[in-house]
Design brief:
Elements lengths: L1 E2 L2 H9 L3 H13 L5 E2 L2 H14 L4 H11 L1
Parallel strand pairs: 1-2
Helix pairs in contact: 1-2, 1-3, 3-4
Length: 69
């Protein structure tokens, strides 16, 4: 099982860099049945980045987290 960090999830969700989004998307596509592992801290950091840096509304952030889980 592969692990992912906050940066990978941010790039996948925000799509602000097409190259990095493509790499993150490829990683998700290749995950297969095993899926990917993200430490709970990664989800806390993702929430913080989406809320503080990208100013997304709480409901939208929760929807993103639900889709990822």
């Amino acid at each position: 099982m592969l692990g992912v960090d906050t940066n990978i999830l941010v790039r996948f969700v925000i799509c602000d860099d097409s190259t990095q989004f493509g790499l993150a998307n490829e990683l998700f596509s290749k995950a297969g049945d095993d899926g990917l592992f993200a430490n709970p801290i990664v989800f806390v950091e993702l929430y913080w980045v989406l809320a503080r840096v990208h100013k997304l509304p709480k409901a939208e952030i929760l929807a993103v987290l639900n889709r990822l889980l």
